[in-house]
Structures are given as structure tokens and as C-alpha cells.
């Protein structure tokens, strides 16, 4: 987030294909993503395939409406096209957009 403009609106897009690893000492998803929400970023999560768990993804965004599950790789193309149109509109409004992939 240090590379974004201080006063610009922020959108974080996280793309995942799986579940959080269950290992000793792991940081819970809601806790790990809290700094993004503290920075007033709009967090959007895209889960691809059958592995992502919408409950886990909701913990990241804090908003079920900001979670999109794309069940098959074939549907990614259509959804990416729609997402890119939305992102262009945000960019024209001066929004900083950050992509994160896990």
C-alpha cells in the first residue's frame, strides 16, 4: 500500500485458487487482512475453481458482496472482461488498484 497515492481511493483485488493452509502459528484471515481495511481499501476477492471457501473469503473482505467465486477456468475469461471494464471506470475516477495473488 506504500506505493499508492495517499488520498486516492484504493481497491485491493486478491485472486486465489485454494484454502488457507492450516499450519501452526498461522495468522487468521480476518486478522491478516485487517491492515487493508484499516487503510480504507475496498477489498475484492476472486476465488477460482472448487477449492476456495466463501466463508474464508468473506473473512478477508468483511463483505460477502465483495467475494466472487468463479467455478471453472472457462468462466474466468468472461469474468475478467467484466472486471476489467469496472476497473477502467475506477481508474478514470483516480482510484489506485492493487492486485494480490496467493
The total of beta strands comes to 4
Secondary-structure content class: alpha/beta
The top level CATH class name: Alpha Beta
Find the CATH topology. Rossmann fold
> How far from one another are the termini?
17 Å
Work out the count of structural domains: 1
Q: How much helix, percentage-wise, in residues?
A: 25-40%
What is the CA-based Rg, rounded?
Answer: 14 Å
Could you walk me through the main structural features you see in this protein, from its secondary elements to its overall organization?
This protein is an alpha/beta fold and 102 residues long. It has a single domain, classed as von Willebrand factor, type A domain (Rossmann fold), CATH 3.40.50. It has helices spanning 29-32, 34-38, 54-61, 73-92; strands at 10-16, 41-48, 67-70, 96-101. It has a 4-stranded parallel beta sheet with strand order 3-2-1-4, sandwiched between helices. Strand 2, helix 3 (54-61) and strand 3 (67-70) form a beta-alpha-beta unit. It is flat and about 40 Å long.
Amino acid at each position: 500500500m506504500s506505493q499508492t497515492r495517499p488520498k486516492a481511493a484504493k481497491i485491493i483485488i486478491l485472486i486465489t485458487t485454494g484454502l488457507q493452509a492450516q499450519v501452526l502459528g498461522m495468522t487468521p484471515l480476518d486478522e491478516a487482512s485487517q491492515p487493508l481495511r484499516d487503510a480504507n481499501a475496498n477489498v475484492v476477492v476472486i476465488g477460482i475453481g472448487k477449492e476456495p471457501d466463501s466463508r474464508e473469503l468473506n473473512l478477508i473482505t468483511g463483505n460477502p458482496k465483495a467475494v466472487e467465486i468463479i467455478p471453472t477456468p472457462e468462466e474466468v475469461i468472461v469474468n475478467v472482461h467484466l472486471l476489467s471494464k469496472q476497473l477502467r471506470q475506477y481508474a478514470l475516477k483516480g482510484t489506485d488498484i492493487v492486485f494480490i495473488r496467493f
